[in-house]
Design brief:
Order of helices and strands: EHEEEHHHHHEHHEEEH
CATH superfamily: DD-peptidase/beta-lactamase superfamily
Low-confidence stretches: 8-12
Oligomer: single chain
Mean pLDDT: 93
Radius of gyration: 17 Å
Shape: globular
CATH architecture: 3-Layer(aba) Sandwich
Structural class: alpha+beta
Strand order of the largest sheet: 1-3-2-8-7-6
Largest sheet: 6 strands, antiparallel
Helix content: 25-40%
CATH topology: Beta-lactamase
Distance between the termini: 25 Å
């Protein structure tokens, strides 16, 4: 499904993602692929409503669900909080994610999904990496992710998403337009190419663009990284030189 959909209040824009080029490239890559690009007024995508296993992408949801708990949201973060959340996001630590989910509970994760207006999210508590996500939902979530974070902890959370460890900064991070700031989370399998995902928010002043690229059954992890890079390169072409992105 290839879509360029106008949202409420949309108007002609000076920039749009090169969806056709991204589809041509993705059509010759291994395995199922979906992507979506969203601005405040438009949504573009390909297979964007199809569900994929989340892998570590869900950690960006666990982060905000934890910070929004009544026992956390109105107090300063403790060393114990940071010891869980910082490695979970920056290094994608799985043990930390499992502990965070145990603390947060499924109800709080679903409450966050509801606040973010996700439509097809399903949490799998026993093996959280098999939770189901869509590219459309992830762009909806990331476009205004900062507004979902309690103000006391907003700078901390966004700082984590902006400082992913260098060895995990592939795909979108390789082709980030220079004048745009990147906040993102990746997800991948065990190195054999089960999944390779990235979900991201790009900001420049008051402008913002969210991107989600989901892949399944890649030949190997490095192949998935290249797929992410190739799609992102085509989708984001011209964004740096765009005068405005409504």
């Amino acid at each position: 499904m290839l879509v360029s959909a106008g949202l409420a209040g949309s108007s002609p824009q000076p920039w749009r993602p090169n969806v056709a080029a991204a589809v041509r490239y993705a059509s010759h890559r291994q395995g199922p692929i979906a992507f979506a690009v969203r601005t405040r007024t438009r949504l573009w995508g390909w297979h964007y409503a199809e569900t994929f296993p989340s892998a570590s992408v869900i950690k960006a949801m666990l982060l905000i669900a934890y910070l929004d708990m009544p026992s956390v949201r109105n107090r300063p973060l403790r060393a114990s909080d940071r010891a869980l959340l910082t490695p979970m996001i920056r290094r994608s630590d799985n043990d930390a994610a499992s502990e965070v989910l145990h603390i947060v509970g499924s109800a709080n994760v679903y409450a966050l999904a509801h606040r973010a207006h996700m439509r097809r999210f399903t949490l799998v508590t026993g093996t959280w990496g098999f939770s189901r996500i869509t590219a459309a939902d992830q762009t909806r979530y990331f476009l205004h992710i900062d507004a979902l974070i309690t103000p006391r902890h907003r700078a901390y959370a966004m700082g984590l998403l902006n400082t992913i460890t260098p060895v995990q900064r592939w795909g979108i991070a390789w082709v980030r337009p220079r004048s745009w700031r990147l906040y993102f989370k990746g997800g991948w399998g065990d190195g054999r190419g089960w999944v390779d995902h990235q979900v991201a928010l790009l900001t420049r002043g008051n402008e913002r663009v969210s991107v989600a690229i989901l892949t399944l059954h890649d030949e190997k992890h490095v192949y998935g990284q290249e797929t992410l890079r190739g799609i992102a390169l085509r989708l984001l072409r011209g964004l740096d030189s765009a005068q405005a992105v409504p």
